Each structure stands twice: as C-alpha cells, then as structure tokens.
C-alpha cells in the first residue's frame, strides 16, 4: 500500500489515539483524540487576542496550578465531590494534564490541600504545604503537611504532620540558596484573618542540618497587617551580596526584609487600598533587564476598598521602584477595569497580561443557598488587559465567555500562550447555578502569536536537544542555542528566562522574568535558515533563584514555538 505523508500522519494519530485508549487504565479519563481538540475554535482577532475552549477538562477544580514540563500542568483542588477518582477510590484532588498527549491523570493525595501553597526547590522538586482539617480517616489534616512533587517521579509524596505549626493560606517563594520560604497564613480556615488565628511566623525548607524542621521564626509584620494579610506578596530583590532580600506586602504595607539577618531594612509608604486576601489583588516583580542593571520594580494591581459584597473592585495599580532613594507608589487606573482577584502573567516579550477576577465584591465563597445565592464576588471581568511596562500603556483584549473568579488560575505556558482554568466560588461542587464549578480549560493567545512574524524553533542548547528533560545550566554561563526559522527572512532575536511559579488565589508565587544578553547570532552555514544564538545567563541567584526555568528566544518580540526547559544552579 502506498500512502502519502499526510495520510500516514493521520493514520499515526488514529493508531496513537487507539493505543492510548487500550493502554490507559480505568483511572485515566477517556479524552478525545488530539485531532478533535484541534477542531475547537479560536474566537477573537489579531488585535485583541483569541480564546479557545479546550475539549479537555481539568478533572478537579483548578484552585492551584503549576507547570511541570514543556507540555505538563498539575492542578490541585480541595477534597470535594469531583467525579474523577484517585487510584484509592477517593475523589481526585490533584491531576496532571499533558496538552501534547491530551491525557489527564489523577494523582495520589491523602491530606487536605485547601488552601495551600507551593514553590520549586533549586534541585527541581516542588514543595507544597498547608491546607485544612481534612476528613479523617479518608483525608488527613493538611495544615502541617509537606508534599513533594518531582516531575521524574510523577506523583505526590506526602509527609503528614511534619511541620511545627498549622498554615492555611501561606505564601511560598524560591530562595537565593535553592531552599524555599514558607511564610504566614492562619492556623485555620477563615474568611478574614484574626489575632486568634494568625500565624505570624516563617519557616525555611529544607532545614539547616537534618530532616527535622527548624523552629518557626517570628515575623511581627504579619501582626501589624491584620486582618487583610493572607497569601501575602513576596519577591526577592536583586542585590550583589547574594542575600535573601525580600519585598513583602500585606494589606497596604510594604517592607524590605533581610531574611538572612531577620531584620526590616526599609518601610515603604503605604499603597492606596487593601490588596491582600480577601481584598485580593495581584503582585509581580516587573521584568528585570540586564541593560538596566536588573532594576527592581514591583507592581500591585486590583484589590478592594471595602469588605462589602456590593463594593466595586479597585481599578488601580501601583508601581514602586525599589532602587529609588525616595520610593513612592506611582498609581494608574489598571486599564480602566475594576478587578478583584486578577491574575498577572508576564509574557516572554516582557509585556504583562492581567486577566480573570471579578468587578464586584471580594474573595470568598457564595453565601446563601443554591436557590437563593449571595455571591460575594460577581460581575466577572471577562476582558484581559495587555500592559506594556515600558510605555505604561494598557490595551483591552477580547473577552472570554467563562467567568473566572474565586479559585481560578492562569499561567504562561512554554508555548507562549496563556492557560486559564478553574473557578468555583462555593464550598462544594455545584452545577446548574450562575457560577458553577468550572472544569473547562481555555487558551488565551495574546496578539503576539497572531501576527505574520515567524516563530523560531529552539532545537538544542550546546548540542542537547530540548523537550526531553531539564538541561542543567549555571549562573553566568554562555549558552549556544541552535534555532531554526521557517524561511530565509532575516530574524531579529532576543531572549528571556522565565520562572513559571506556583499559581493560586491570584498570585503566581515566584513568577520571574529576566531578559538575557544576546552576545551573537551566527548563521549556521551547514543548514538553511538555521542560526546559532549565543546568550549569557544572569550573573547571580538574586536575579532569578535556582530551579527549573524556561528559556524563550523571540523573533521581533514573537516567541519561539516552545521554550527550552533548564535547571539553573
Ligand atoms: C530535592 O531536595 C529535597 C529536600 O531536600 C528532597 O526531598 C528531594 O528529594 C530532592 N529532589 C531531587 C530531585 O533530588
Ligand atoms: C556551551 O558552550 C559554550 C561554548 O563552547 C561554553 O562556553 C559553555 O560553557 C557551554 N555551556 C554549557 C552549559 O555547557
Ligand atoms: Cu481559597
């Protein structure tokens, strides 16, 4: 039989899909073949971006999410009546989705993950901690549990009751020394923190010299910032002494904190309006550029002035230049859209997409009954805004049709688009109601993916093919990336390295963008339309902490089809 290329490709997809069905055990959701997924529609246009609803679902509500590989995403929910079951028969709480293979796999979790935090260690394992009471004997209490996710293991390893104090709604962050910070939270679930529930301490993992946690360290800042101080905002501030210098913001107060000596270095002016849970805004370290000496500027967007169901959300962002001798908040109108619970996603081009959230109310569950609901967050903000940190201009993007409010997430992907999932502003799985539990995933493609500009393909780094597993690299390294282009148009290459952190409750803990120095671009004389791009990695771990990162090459600000995954140490 003679078959042409196109037919053999289709045959391959068909046989591949068939094998997948046969090989999968009962616990893997039966998903449509990849071909069907591609038939879904992109709605929108090149100016305002497009939305595509995937035919695949998350299986659990995507309350928390992180990227574990070029095509893999892990979602974490709380214990609720999800139809998908774990291997042990309990409802699934966490799943792994592979967008290339189009498979969804329930993971093993036996402790309460509602609501928790996570962060990548320098060695490439994610540490996850915190949660709630559980439902013994089927679900252990989660507040003192540490959970580990190593993508090469592919499932959770839990150590229940290991930590010394209880944490619900803590914050985590990758540190300069490859360890992770576990900060704050309350000792039990609450709509609003209080002195009785507050846990104004932090801990660092792994501990100093054995496997037993170090004692918690007091952090009075979290007493001063009650009651709006859960899931506080934290970023490492670049410095030349390799210090863990932290910008911390809770409620309206920001400080510079030297973690290595446990001292507050600077008290910044207050920002207008409360910004942290349940008045949830979003925080990011703006892109750090080598030609600007990695000048550190934080940006805090959205929030809420009043703890009122009917109150309009905050339509402002503040930028604070941490290198200024007299730091002051520079305020704007957040693109004109009020938003509580916005997600912020830094693109490989250095632009920022703010999306998701509500235009009224605050973070929390629906009150009232199913028939007579009182939504504490409503009026979904369907339109993302695209922000350029250099020109400080916002562009309103095309709207989604799906409400993404309390307990929803968004992340940049290695392929340059944004994956959006979740939303469940109520205490249990609920369907047939205005804001039902949302299992659908969406892709938002920003305008930079919708131009005629050609997208580079990274083939290898110093000869090691990408797309297999993380390539080990070190600070200050010169890397040679072999990059191919579709045609012989002359490309204009730039590069960035991005940490895709742990996303929950409108925070991307650890999200970091660093521009890379491009030293040289040489045409590869051995192959058509192929280039050798030499880049230099950042000089020290205060610029971007050790851990798993993605390197993007861009052509005229349009990102490569898939970033190269590296482990930086
Ligand atoms: C990384 O370190 C942590 C804590 O020390 C350990 O639990 C984990 O197994 C390590 N991961 C790898 C991939 O070595
Ligand atoms: C990559 O190759 C360059 C040029 O040979 C070399 O300087 C650099 O150390 C290499 N980096 C790695 C991570 O192998
Ligand atoms: Cu929550």
Automatic annotation (TrEMBL):
Organism superkingdom: Eukaryota
All copies of domain Galactose oxidase-like Early set, residue ranges: 465-561
Record flagged with keyword Signal: yes
Keywords for this protein: Signal
One Pfam assignment: GO-like_E_set
Organism, as annotated: Glomus cerebriforme
UniProt protein name: Copper radical oxidase
Domain Glyoxal oxidase N-terminal residue range list: 92-448
